[in-house]
TrEMBL record, chain A:
GO molecular function: oxidoreductase activity
Official protein name in the record: FAD/NAD(P)-binding oxidoreductase
InterPro entries, sorted: BFD-like_2Fe2S-bd_dom_sf, FAD-dep_OxRdtase, FAD/NAD-bd_sf, G3P_Oxidase/Oxidoreductase
Keywords in alphabetical order: Oxidoreductase
Pfam short name (any one): DAO
CDD domains hit by this protein: GlpA-like_Fer2_BFD-like
Transmembrane segments: none
Residue ranges annotated for the FAD dependent oxidoreductase domain, each copy included: 10-357
UniProtKB/TrEMBL annotation, chain B:
Keyword Nucleus recorded: no
GO MF annotations, alphabetized: oxidoreductase activity
Highest taxon in the source lineage: Bacteria
Pfam families documented for this protein: Pyr_redox_2
The protein's name: Pyridine nucleotide-disulfide oxidoreductase
Keywords of the record: Oxidoreductase
Domain FAD/NAD(P)-binding: 4-296
Transmembrane segments: none
Length: 465, 398
């Protein structure tokens, strides 16, 4: 049940990506009555469903930028809370690898920038040390810069955990609740027109990601314009996991950070992203040529990738704008906080952005009590780093053999205050069907569990045409 | 402790169990990760099974039931996943009760096969619901009574692709098209006539699937024909064929794999590079019909019986066989010089006509004209004694 429309929420957060979930969490924990509005059938339906799942140090950010600051703050907050929530942190480290003389010439600048960003543990790594650490790298690797703090996390369980903490603190999440427009009355209350009816709130926080400028136009002509940037990724089979221990970064150029090779928390090896501008802010499609090119680049860095098979491929759209930095601003007169242009670093920065939003609220709207970090919920472990249910005595039957997902884990994805809203949500909560066979062996049995909750997926044989 | 452990309760594994028991092994354990034994035929409701091994024509489920019944005497452990297959055949397994380590005298790997996914083929587009393999589609229809779509396209024209059409017919739906990149269908000819005239499905050859479209559910595909792209409206894609052995358990491990088959290398006694581990059935190479898999299961079990009796030749005495010319692969990858006649199995990479030659040290030992299709098994029997004093042989199609 939603509140009656005439009893306004304190805050309506628009967009349940990782940033929206983190903002929802912090304001809910601060004792405010918060509603999180998501247009998709589940949270993480936009940019946040498809990223590289890295927790950055911010060593390569623009020094002094808001992005740099909030990445550091976000990563530090994640490191403080992840264990209590059962969220993983693979301390892989990263190495920026120089492949030629021009790359080598850029290394001192990379070191310097790391130091300027307050990441003091970056250091040069010679070719021999690099080879000893990453024996599968191509022999052309000339050494690089070692960034020990770069890490791999589970990009889905973290924001889901933030949302659940917000709900436990009294917040409400409405899905399939796209915001079509809104007006503000004389009393300063926003009346948002959503797909599930009117929602009233005293303050709106725009975390709408790729829809950010459209939502912003409800409050004012948007000062930023979303220019979606597509990133395609290839996920290699688990047998490729051994081919890299650290995150392998290229020396970045002006436009892109380049193609990265990293482990995933689920035990695969990830190659990507591409960086492609496109006008379409909805459709994130892969294309064969780009995927082939990613694999070719991966093979150039780690030749043994040639023997590995592809588990899956995906594309994500990042909400870039005409500006390099985040576009975050409080509009006291409008009762509005804008959080726009959170590009590929949003997963890292989310909790920092939420803290920043809270500071803006305190500066411009009202003071808030300090809150204690809640205990739990402890998220189900989906990673290979920690024990999983299939390893327990008296386990339930394994439904998804590639990812070793038990019946209970799939059923659990439909339990609780924020059950899976669509198939993607089920996969993100359980990992089922995400392995090398992509459902060859488990579709039917997953559907038997999922169909009562997600009725659009299959129809009974001989049913209505 | 089990003397022999078989991984996989499909046609190869169950037939091997039957053979081992008939040969007097009292302690045979079959490990199956699914809740029931029988393998992939369980989900193929149309007729066509049992012809080669039982001289009957059954539905897949009937055949699977018969295989299971005939393996009685073996200990069948379902819901058991093998998580590691180590040197000497040491097995780590996950069972409903907990994890165990098994140390049998011999292991038979009969883990079967699966189709290559849309992702592994690097097919572009979005990722909507409605893209399934034939295996998943058949299991949904025959075992689950579930229909994921009404108007799918079928990608591929292998034998299994026509099996998908039969399944669609059983489900009361009609695919909108079959799509094949090559100039002709992969399966034997007449398949296309069968599709067109019996099932009413147009077969589009020289047509490439470029991308899959749709947001939550498939709403179309983009195909390319003669450099021209066009859209076909549909609500699903059945991605058929291009089978690959389910050999992930072996990758990164100590067993020698054959990149060309995707399975383990074996000698002519179905023995892998670890003499305690045998392999049979579709885990050896891209797909054969269940009768062939079952025959291999029986042959591997016969070799295991000899192994238990201590009468198999030492693995080191085998000599390598390599494919050449238009051959994609050949197995067994190692053969023995003095162990009787040996049959080699091979596949061509594409349809071609030519001469199949067994060559060694510059000489042709056996040759024959053949007409090869990528889906058709090529066999060649090395006569007894033909390999005397030879160190390696090559099977060539040119």
């Amino acid at each position: 049940m939603t509140l009656p429309p005439d009893v306004p929420y304190d805050i309506a957060v628009i967009g349940a990506g990782v940033v929206g979930c983190a903002v929802f969490r912090d304001f809910s924990l601060s004792g405010l009555r918060v509603v999180l509005l998501e247009r998709g059938a589940d949270i993480l339906s936009g940019a946040s469903k498809a990223n590289s799942a890295l927790l950055h140090t911010g060593f390569d950010a623009v020094p002094g930028s808001l992005e740099s600051r909030l990445m550091q703050e976000g990563a530090a907050r994640y490191r403080r809370i992840h264990q209590g929530m059962g969220l993983p942190l693979l301390p892989t480290g990263a190495v920026v690898v120089a492949w030629n003389a021009a790359d080598e010439a850029a290394l001192p600048g990379i070191l310097e920038r790391g130091h300027a960003n307050g990441v003091h543990d970056v250091r040069p790594m010679g070719a021999d040390e690099l080879r000893a650490r990453e024996p599968h790298l191509a022999p052309e690797a000339r050494g690089g810069v070692w960034v020990p703090g770069e890490s791999v996390i589970d990009a889905w369980s973290a924001p889901l955990g933030y949302a659940l903490q917000g709900i436990a603190a009294g917040g409400r999440v409405l899905r399939r609740a796209g915001v079509r427009g809104g007006t503000r009355d004389e009393a300063g209350t926003w009346r948002l027109d959503t797909e599930v009816g009117p929602v009233a709130a005293r303050l709106v926080v725009n975390c709408a990601g790729n829809q950010g400028d459209i939502v912003e136009a409800i409050a004012r002509p948007s000062p930023f314009e979303i220019r979606p940037r597509k990133g395609q990724f290839v996920v290699l089979d688990k047998t490729a996991y051994r081919l890299a221990t650290a995150i392998i970064l290229p020396v970045p150029n002006e436009r892109t950070k380049g193609v990265v090779i990293s482990r995933t928390a689920f035990g695969n090896l990830l190659v990507g992203p591409t960086a492609e501008e496109q006008p379409d802010r909805e459709r994130a499609a892969t294309d064969t040529a780009a995927l082939e090119s990613l694999l070719a680049q991966g093979r150039r860095m780690i030749p043994a990738i040639a023997q590995e098979t592809v588990t899956t491929a995906y594309a994500g759209l990042r909400p870039a704008t005409q500006f390099k930095d985040y576009q975050i601003e409080a509009l006291p007169k409008e009762g509005w906080i804008s959080i726009g242009g959170i590009r590929s670093t949003g997963l890292t920065a989310a909790l920092g952005i939420a803290a920043h939003a809270r500071r803006l609220y305190e500066a411009h709207f009202a003071t808030l009590p300090a809150f204690e970090e809640p205990e739990g919920p402890v998220m189900p472990n989906l990673t290979e780093e920690l024990p999983r249910p299939w390893q327990e005595d008296h386990r339930e039957e394994i439904i998804c053999h590639c990812e070793m997902v038990t019946r209970r884990e799939i059923a659990a994805a439909f339990d609780g205050p924020l059950p899976a809203g669509d198939l993607g949500g089920l996969k993100r909560r359980s990992r089922c069907m995400m392995g090398r066979c992509q459902g060859f062996y488990c579709f039917r049995r997953v559907m038997e569990i999922a169909a009562p909750h997600l009725p659009d997926l299959v129809s009974p044989l001989g049913g209505a045409r | 402790m089990a003397t022999t452990v078989i991984i996989g309760a499909g046609p190869a594994g169950l037939t091997a169990a039957r053979t081992l028991i008939a040969g007097g092994v009292t302690d045979v354990t079959i490990l199956e990760r699914n809740p029931e034994a029988g393998g992939l035929p369980r989900f193929c409701g149309h007729l066509g099974w049992g012809f080669f091994d039982y001289h009957r024509i059954w539905s897949g489920p009937a055949y699977a039931r018969r295989l299971v019944a005939d393996a009685r005497g073996a200990t069948l452990r379902t819901n058991v996943s093998v998580t590691s297959l180590g040197p000497g055949g040491v097995l780590e397994i996950s069972t409903p009760q907990g994890r165990e380590t098994l140390t049998p005298r011999a292991v038979l790997l009969a883990a079967g096969i699966r189709e290559t996914t849309r992702a592994a083929r690097l097919i572009g587009g979005t990722r909507p619901w409605g893209v399934v393999s034939t295996g998943a589609f058949q299991e949904m229809v025959y075992a689950g009574g579930q229909m994921p779509f009404r108007r799918p396209v079928v990608l591929g024209t292998e034998l299994v692709s026509f099996s998908a059409l039969l399944t669609a017919r059983h489900a009361g739906i009609r695919p909108v098209a079959m799509i094949e990149e090559a100039a002709r269908i992969t399966a034997r000819r007449l398949g296309d006539l069968f599709a067109r005239h019996i099932l009413g499905v147009p077969v589009l050859t020289r047509t490439k699937l470029v991308s899959i479209e749709g947001t939550s559910r498939v709403d179309g595909v983009i195909v390319e024909e003669n450099g021209m792209q066009r859209r076909i409206d549909c609500d699903g894609v059945i991605v058929t064929g291009r089978f690959a052995p389910e050999a992930a358990l072996l990758r990164g491990g100590p067993l020698a794999l054959d990149p060309a088959t995707g399975g383990p290398q074996i000698d002519s006694f179905y023995r892998t590079s670890d003499p305690a581990i045998f392999a049979a059935g579709n885990v050896l190479r891209p797909v054969e019909h269940s009768g062939q898999a079952a025959a291999e299961g029986a042959a591997a079990a016969t070799a295991m019986l000899r192994d238990l009796a201590g009468t198999l030749p030492a693995p080191a005495d085998a000599i390598p066989v390599t494919p050449a010319g238009a051959l994609r692969y050949v197995y067994p990858q190692r053969v023995f010089r003095d162990a009787g006649a040996i049959t080699l199995y091979a596949r061509a990479s594409q349809a071609c006509r030519g001469t199949l030659r067994l060559k060694a040290e510059g000489r042709t030992l056996v040759e024959r004209r053949i007409d090869a299709l990528p889906e058709r098994r090529i066999t060649l029997t090395i006569p007894e004694g033909a390999l005397k004093k030879i160190c390696r042989v090559e099977l060539e199609l040119a």
